[in-house]
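Hey, I'm writing a tutorial for new members on how sequence and structure tokens pair up, and I'd like a real worked example in the thread rather than a made-up one. If someone can provide the structure for the chain below, I'll link this post from the tutorial.
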Amino acid sequence: MKHIAQGIAATALLLSGVSAAKDSVAFYQPQQADTDISVTTAPAGSFDEFADSTVDAIKDALRLYKAEDKSSLVQEVKLSWMEQYQIAVVQPNGSNSHHLKPGASPVNQEFRRSWVGLNIKLNTGTLFHTWARIGGLPMRETYAGGRTRKNYSYADFFDLYIQQEIPGVEGLSVKVGKLKPLFTMDYTEASSKIKCVERSLIGQFNGLDSNWGIDVTYAPRKDLSFYVQLLANDRASGVKSMTHSDVYRDGRGLKGEFGWEDKFFAIVGARYRFIETADSSHELVFQYMHDFDNSYDGHSEQGANYYGPGVQDSISVGYLYNRDRFTFMANAVAFYDVVDAEGGSNCYGLQIQPSYLVTPHVELVFRYTALSSLEYHGKGGTVVPLSADRYICTQTTAPLRCEHANAFYIGANFFFSAKNPDALKLMIGAEYITARTEGTDVYNGWEFTSAFRWSF
């Protein structure tokens, strides 16, 4: 109870002085896109008018240049700024003997995200976009040998690409550079728009981050789009670099050169929105990912260390329903041939996430996540990455992998501006996670999280 009280106190600290506003239901949008939505103008002199005008003023200050007509080559030059400071408290259930690690605190706090960006739009249909991480800020603490290790963020480019609209083909565009992989409903959503403090175990299953490659997107209609991503990873050591990609397993590469044969993966996806009315819509999303790495089926070189998506073939089928203030998202996934799996190597999962905008300032969210491996002689294989949760394996003695995991999340989001709901918000959440291997509990317990976020 002491640690639960610490979590409540941490949440109360973040809540003080923070107001709220409406969240956008926009989905499947690239991170460089503006998050403004059309809302009724706030009454003069009201808090909403103050909040909306404050956010607009900050956005205007970050817009360095905007052309007066379309004849100018440079149409717009705009800076972006994203921050996320969060506090987490883990409370493992001691009855299953999985307690905090020796020397570990149940409380962890960090600058989860601290990014600055630049967008330059040209009248040729060209966009230059980047997000750069700010280095040197306190990140989550880790624990080993009974000692606390303080960690700090590193400076690098999360995104760095050029996007070009193809003349003569409506809806066709190409991106080249360092890109975010688009796989699973949770991970495809822009980080500024996610409804829970942390993405689900499904969204974090592959440990994806941005990689060098190419993205070809074709949207012949507003309700239909297709895309192909060809991505490669060039990390060769545990040393962080401004130019290296970020998908890796144990921090050591295969040989050190940038190669397509053993470090290349591809994603194809399609989105279709249907049965649209004035206040509702349905959307289906299909995604398939294949990893061309040579580490599967025992083909990796002796002593080589795998890094990449961690699964040879992955399928994600998502559904999104919006109606007025209610949003429902579901995502079914299948992961085939998980690298280094013990026992069964396949894993299946389901995520269900309804949310409701109670007022223009308060949103409630529930999320259920299940992951399981079922085909190993009636048992599963230890392929479910419990380590995909940010804090459980950092601070407790829970195993990195298990056979089955279930997670129940309930949270609330509070928004500052109704016109720009994702610009400034407070997020609080509580998640209960259970994990089993060979019929035995290997972890169960609570995780309380609070995050103060802004994105301009």
